[in-house]
């Protein structure tokens, strides 16, 4: 909004040139969402505690040490959604369709997560929306957003898949790009959801991935940098660096309240929305495959569940003591802070590896 209001005044007042700068607005988005989280966080958490006297239901089949967290409210992802939305609307170019498409994914998946969290609280159990219904709703939101993105992008980018480590290679997926993009967005969303199981475990890797994708969107949106790096330029996608900045700031603000011992859990409201947002940015910037590297921690958590379920159904044996992967290490006796910090390190290394693909071509 500030870009649309103040940037046109740059010809008369030089100070307003700042609002034409993506880096300035992305940095401002980080600070704004952080401030929003700090200001509204205590009030939102207070309201959640009033509405949830029993706190988030604890899985009976989960690690026994989690019962000590009983009474902690969930739906803290609403704070993230509020901070991201306010900051993005304030600092992004509101005439940019990619911004609105990614916001649609973020808010849409956040709404699905909110309904899921509400049903869990209402039923006083860890069961929320039926799995098939939840996936159907996610596919619907992701499908609408993807069709919108494709219509703005134009051929050949709209149906093209860029390959890491390869220059000038754009694989035309034709009609198959739609289900592929939906898979990326829905898969990213649920991968983050599976990772969210310990205090601070999911939010920091999300911030790392958002910061990485923010840099990628800035480079992809700049024809000069894109040509230098031999990556495909997507005009207008640079504006998503503002959105990613808002996501980083909101994550920092939420972490303030989610640091052990957590005052609030993000719930599906936060994990589904943030994961979907990462997937949406990856689709716009044509870095869907690179997301699997940058968000490799989320992939590992998801694969651990798939392997565990598949192994048990086929052989009757479990590969891990418990899935997702972070529960396996809990059962091995690792302290929660040890697991969280080591997973943060893994997420950082994988993000650097993903960013390295920008140059290794």
Structure description:
The chain is mainly alpha-helical. It has one domain. 65% of the residues lie in helices and 2% in strands. It has 14 helices and two strands. It has helices at 2-6, 22-51, 77-91, 97-123, 131-153, 177-195, 203-220, 223-229, 240-258, 267-284, 288-294, 296-315, 325-331, 336-356; strands at 160-162, 170-172. It has a two-stranded antiparallel ribbon with strand order 1-2. Helix 4 (97-123) runs antiparallel to helix 5 (131-153) and helix 7 runs parallel beside helix 14. The mean pLDDT is 91.
Q: Give the beta-strand count.
A: 2
Distance between the termini: 38 Å
| Helix count from the secondary structure assignment | 14
Summarize the biggest pleated sheet.
2 strands, antiparallel
Strand order of the largest sheet: 1-2
Helicity range of the residues? 55-70%
Q: Which regions contain 5 or more consecutive residues with pLDDT less than 50?
A: none
Strand content range: under 5%
Order of helices and strands: HHHHHEEHHHHHHHHH
- Give the radius of gyration: 20 Å
**Quick one: overall form?**
globular
Mean pLDDT over the full residue set: 91
Number of domains: 1
Structural class: mainly alpha
